[in-house]
Amino acid sequence: LLMRHYLKILLLLLLTAVFLIIVYVFVTNSFFTEYNLKRNEKYHLINEEYEENRALNAQRYNVWCVFTKLKKTERSLEYKLKNMLISLVNTTSLVINLNIVVDTSSRYVAKDVVNEILKITGKKFEVEYHDVHVLTNKLQDLLNVMRPHFSSQPGAYYSDSLFFLSLGLYRVAPINQDRIIMLDIDTLIKKDIGQLFKVFQQFNSTNVFGASPELTPVYHHILYVYRNKHKNTSLGEPQSSGGFPGVNSGVLLLHLDNMRKSSLYQKMLTKEIVDSLAEKYSFKGHLGDQDFYTLISLEHPELMYLLDCGWNRQLCTWWRDHGYRETFHKFSECNSPTKIYHGNCNSIIPEQ
After folding, report:
1. Measured between alpha carbons, how far is 308 from 339 in angstroms, rounded to an integer?
2. pTM of the prediction?
3. Which of 4, 133, 192, 238 is the most buried (most CB within 10 A)?
4. Domain membership of residue 291 as a residue range
5. Does the residue 103 lie in any domain?
6. Are residues 27 and 69 in the same domain?
7. Both 37 and 135 in a single domain?
8. Once rounded to an integer, what is the mean pLDDT over residues 242-246?
């Protein structure tokens, strides 16, 4: 009888222990489930915040221009910058993030111009100033590769470091800038720059830059030796005849994100490749970055997105008076409506 009593007590204790274990498992499971839910919720919130910030950065409309080498007695560059910026902000409803590359002498002039435009237009835009020497000092390796092939001689106008800046901007621009438009200050914007930013949506993963065709025979001239050896080539021929006349860098779309990811583009920047291509095409340029963009497009057109000529309606007629009077019209032909005028060669930009 006593043994039976002990067995009952033992059974009761066993059942109590099992019950407590079940309760413990249930409570612990509930705690971790709630913890994981909260953790997942926090993770999704962080993820959403990250995606929101990423989208915000992607929507920043970054426009770059270079404003350097001012002369004390010459105000033409200041006048050009003012006109370009007024046309830029007056033709868009976007809030532009303006990036101005300056040197010691131009920084304060640029700030005065910007302040004046803010008052004149009443438009809101953001401004960042970048020291040209800080940027180019970080790109000396690249500049040393480019100068021998794309400037006429040491000390020449286009031998200056700033004329090669766009090639390495993917290395020195703020990392949150992944798509930028770079404008020469001798341009005048006629249509909403937002429409040009939309062109980035047409880039594929291999396109690292976008540029309009060159509207003069400069590369027809530079490629003279190559064309003589390759009689049927379309390289250097006017676009109106189905050729490729090279590109002009007065208006550039730079897909910095693609540049950062493209092993092919970065390979194109090496001395070995630039030397090899310059030899292959008998190419000796004098126009800085646009010579490089033209040269790599001859070999790897997939790196380039060819813009509508209306986005860079060049007005220079120098070549018409220097050996190409009979054929110049074939190169300068652009049947697209003008969206940006480019007053290169100090050309006068039409008021209307």
Report:
1. 10
2. 0.83
3. 238
4. 59-342
5. yes
6. no
7. no
8. 98
